[in-house]
Amino acid sequence: SLKMASDSPESLMTLCTDYCLRNLEGTLCYLLDNETLRLHPDIFLPSEICDKLVNEYVELVKTDSIFEPHESFFTLFSDPRSTRLARIHLREQIVQDQDLEAIRKQDLVELYLTNCEKLTAKSLQTLVSFSHTLISLSLFGCCNIFYEEENPGGCEDDCLVNPTRQVLVKDFTFEGFSRLRFLNLGRLIEGVNVETLLRPLASLAALDLSGIQLNDVGFLTQWKDSLVSLVLYNMDLSEEHIQVIAQLRKLRHLDISRDHLSSYYKFKLTRRVLNLFVENLVNLTSLDISGHTMLENCTIPSMEEKMGQTSIEPAKSSIAPFRGLKRPLQFLGLFETSLCRLTHIPAYKVSGDKNEEQVLNAIEAYTEHRPEITSRAINLLFDIARIERCSQLLRALQLVITALKCHKDDKNIQVTGSAALFYLTNSEYRMEQSVKLRRQVIQVVLNGMESYQEVTVQRNCCLTLCNFSIPEELEFQYRRVNELLLNILNQSRQDESIQRIAVHLCNALVCQVDNDHKEAVGKMGFVMTMLKLIQKKLADKTCDQVMEFSWSALWNITDETPDNCEMFLNYSGMKLFLECLKEFPEKQELHRNMLGLLGNVAEVKELRPQLMTSQFISVFSNLLESKADGIEVSYNACGVLSHIMFDGPEAWGICEPHREEVVKRMWAAIQSWDINSRRNINYRSFEPILRLLPQGISPVSQHWATWALYNLVSVYPDKYCPLLIKEGGIPLLKDMIKMASARQETKEMAQ
């Protein structure tokens, strides 16, 4: 019943359902008294639509952190005259007693309640409302559904101390559930008498008693003519159990598997037991004996075993008792048994740990109800993806995504699943993945980061995100990714490696994106977070990747975004700039990133007065002579000064250094650069450079701008010639050539 991650486009039905659920008020409902959802009176919806609305709602609440659950959602389905429900699947904390109570008038045919721990015995009474129509029922993991709250009488004070005591309900049975055929009682709490509970059921077809200890299962023979599926996972078996099972001759699916790590089992499988099953259960198409220890050797001699092509024919079976099968089994569960490594296994599908196919079969078979087994299977898949090449990539990805969605709060699955995703999404598999599938990966990765502050999960998730094209592939979750990463970087105690990856991701996310994105991220506290990281690194006197990436991220986020530039200045960014320059005089990358950022600040007219101090101007002038990172540091320092000069002599509010002296040093610097230099810089727009052309106040600024354009269009013509034309650079250059104030060498370069 698990919803598998899929790779085909969503159906129109699914898209409409999703839209309605996210916009209930604007579509199916209105708000009564500003709080209760009510269905519009003229709406009638058949079960095909209502079932989907309920099941998708549960899925959204569980897997989409942005989706808000509604208190009164289930009341929309209280009247069968306007909304019909037939088959619904409810999970975990999402469902409470009052939700089931709200839909009690519905004629449900199928009701799956999986791990609904909030349901109490009140819901048992509600189940009775469905008794005349219910065919399939699952109460798997509903550990409190047989408990009712008993209010002890006596004084008021006592009631405050111990208002409720949980009491086991012993008198409930499935009396009156005349149509019930499929029943799952997995992980039922101890103390409930299963035999009494089930006795009224006339003809059970499928029964799941996973994780329940029953010493006597003789009562199962009352359905020997109807039972086709029996699951006794993790039940400690005995000879008596085996004898009873052998009498259930109609069985097509038998599962006696166990988790070999969970507890001590006395029972061991023997050749005789397997022979007994093969002889008596002639309709068997599926058998699961995973986790069992074989007491004796059931395999045929090894010489014979290794011979010939792998075969699923029973006559050639490497497992001797299965030679008696009439035809190969559809499914054989051999996970964590030695038998799965044999050559000839008479089944179309085998779960085991021998190869990728067996491991994927195991994940598929056990994900929904056995996370403890699934996490070990995913761990095996992780090894396959890491060491060999996955041949069924699409299936592997879909299974891991499904497991991570289904077990959002299971630490083992989150750790192994996120690690497997890292290897399954790396570049060698890139071509085989659709946009939709890659988006599903991103969703579950972000879910993991949200739910788990645990270091391994966080690291795996961050590493997996690095396999995507950033920012393009993360654009659809842009806010959320940034919030999660900033959250990681703002934690007081930090893992070095996670910090490094998170800063790298933050930097990539603000590179080459629209200004509104940058402004939004700035408002989330991005600038402040980066400056804090820089502050910490300065205090430790380390200039590592985190330090360099943080400055690079600030350079990116301030590009043509005045608000972020202003934040940089307000949070003492200039003080950190000077301290970094002094502490790390030799770090060229660092100097380039810092000056690139200051170039962005200098482009904002209102902020330039804050750069007009003797100290800053001296620092920028001295950096004109820097040979760090080719011409980049010198070029950026000259850019900052060009914008300052553009404000004219009257804005030069300092005595030292003199304006003319700085101008002279700027000319000297520009003349020293090689015009064919390859560049370490990326322009999205020439606008800040072009505005320095039509002016006569500062010929040196005009020259710097012309040099910058000339260098970029001659070294990277394909990229920058179209940009220059598009932004109207040609007429500006032509006009400048005619200007009397422009220097001759500037005009020649412009020409």
Describe this structure in words.
With 751 residues, the chain is α/β, with parallel strands linked by helices. The chain has a domain of 134 residues. It contains 31 helices and 14 strands. Strand 3, helix 3 and strand 4 form a beta-alpha-beta unit. Helix 28 runs parallel beside helix 31. One of its GO terms (cellular component) is Cul2-RING ubiquitin ligase complex. Belongs to the zyg-11 family.
From the structure above, extract its key features.
ten-stranded parallel β-sheet, 31 helices, 7% strand, elongated, 46% helix, 14 strands, 751 residues, two-stranded antiparallel ribbon, alpha/beta, repeat, LRR_dom_sf, Protein zer-1 homolog
The share of residues in extended strands comes to 5-15%
What is the overall shape?
elongated
Major sheet summary line: 10 strands, parallel
| Side-by-side strand order of the widest sheet | 3-4-5-8-9-10-11-12-13-14
Show unreliable segments.
Answer: 158-162
Note the gap between the termini: 72 Å
Write the layout of secondary structure elements.
Blueprint (H helix, E strand, L loop, with lengths): L11 H11 L6 E4 L3 E4 L7 H17 L23 E5 L5 H6 L7 E5 L6 H9 L6 E3 L8 E4 L5 H6 L3 E4 L13 E3 L9 H5 L7 E3 L20 E3 L7 H9 L5 E3 L15 H10 L5 E3 L13 H4 L23 E5 L13 E5 L4 H11 L4 H17 L5 H14 L4 H14 L10 H17 L3 H11 L12 H12 L6 H14 L5 H9 L2 H14 L5 H14 L3 H9 L2 H11 L4 H15 L11 H10 L8 H14 L13 H14 L14 H4 L8 H17 L1 H10 L2 H9 L6 H7 L1
Parallel strand pairs: 3-4, 4-5, 5-8, 8-9, 9-10, 10-11, 11-12, 12-13, 13-14
Antiparallel strand pairs: 1-2, 6-7
Helix pairs in contact: 1-2, 7-8, 10-11, 11-13, 12-13, 12-14, 13-15, 14-15, 15-17, 16-17, 17-20, 19-20, 19-22, 20-23, 23-25, 24-25, 25-26, 25-28, 26-28, 28-29, 28-31, 30-31
